[in-house]
């Protein structure tokens, strides 16, 4: 009754809850999509709920995605929400610890560093890393066995991303001290840090020590490279950032290069390792699709499966569709948040969202709606056979140039796993390249399937962190391919 009586007219409806501060924290936290769909049915596309004392206004479907993700900078703000969590992890003067205009310049540096030449070299480096990984990893000894997909894929992703984007020095350190530093720094993204970002949590000391040590490591790499002690080889992002200048002519200082590299490592690692894990977990439910993927490689690249190239990768639509379809149902970022800077009327409604609320968008909801996708809960890479077209890129859409890329101004796509607007992901191209290259190499090496041939995906999603991922452990069977492809699973 109190919730009804004290609701201001024109504010969006409040999701009913029994306890004031806890609000809907538990139901939302356990399964955000179930929560969003249940409340969408009760209240419509716009509603407010209480998350640990904060009022979150959710705006769903394509209108809601567009309203929040393409919100103007005077209306909505990301850094005030994300910096308490990301600031201590990424560091000073980068990403959310600086004015948005500076972030836009930093995004431009990264985007422009992903040149064709760089991407071309990454395909070779990533392939070599996967081949080496499956040769030396203990779970892949022998002819067949099982492996815990999320754990093993997290390891593999860090090696492939570090060898390509991060550069050889960082990759070599991952076998030794860097892995521990990464682990400690990652504690900064624990769910508890998100909930209590202001609190002096016990693991924050380990996080801060790891952060300082990592900044030192990257700064040292930059200094050694600048001194000429390390010869320029390859196209990693550190080399590129060392050459970038802000609009006012200032080169990117060492600590900012370090911070940007840490941000790329953290942003890329969780999203990509979760996605490749889901790809394999989904393929394990459909072993015949693994064979179809191998056949695609043979048909397009040649029956003898020559070494993969960047050009070859572009010619494998089913591989790209497998990534795309997996991101539809398993987008790693289930909730995107913005601070409200001035009272906002929600597009197409009479609702006014006050500045005391936080806006929440979930493009994963429109990606699961049957008004946009036939049989949406069914995972099927072939649903994209007619084309990988994204409404967002349609020629008649109005666009805006953020400096780092031209993005649709009013997106009406129900499929936005990489977000939209000024904060849209800059890692999409690299992520696709990394995920597809791993997939190509994996399919060449192994057959996979669920234990007992189960056709359903074997684990639920763990939503407890900022990035959702498959619950650990999730064990599937692998079998090494015979020379003549005659090996049979089981
Ligand atoms: C932002 C998704 C991989 C770097 C974002 C956002 C999404 C996203 C939805 C927007 C967040 C928001 O609006 O608040 C993904 C997915 C990935 C992926 C699904 C992989 C499957 C990567 C990789 C990198 C990266 C590999 C780095 C190489 C970034 C950065 C931002 C971002 C720096 C922040 C941009 C900003 O706030 O302006 N990503 N990402 N991402 N992503 Fe990714």
From TrEMBL:
UniProt-listed Pfam families: p450
Cellular component terms (Gene Ontology): membrane
Location relative to the cell: Membrane
CDD domains in alphabetical order: CYP51-like
Cross-referenced InterPro entries: CYP450_sterol_14alpha_dmase, Cyt_P450, Cyt_P450_CS, Cyt_P450_E_grp-IV, Cyt_P450_sf
Keyword Cell inner membrane carried by entry: no
Cofactor(s) demanded: heme
SUPFAM superfamilies attached to this UniProt entry: Cytochrome P450 (SSF48264)
Lineage: superkingdom: Eukaryota
GO molecular function list: heme binding; iron ion binding; methyltransferase activity; sterol 14-demethylase activity
GO biological process, one term: methylation
Coiled-coil regions listed in the entry: none
Residues annotated for heme binding in this entry: 425
Primary localization: membrane
Record key words, sorted: Heme, Iron, Membrane, Metal-binding, Methyltransferase, Monooxygenase, Oxidoreductase, Transferase, Transmembrane, Transmembrane helix
Family per similarity comment: Belongs to the cytochrome P450 family.
Protein name: Eburicol 14 alpha-demethylase-like protein
Organism of this sequence: Lophiotrema nucula
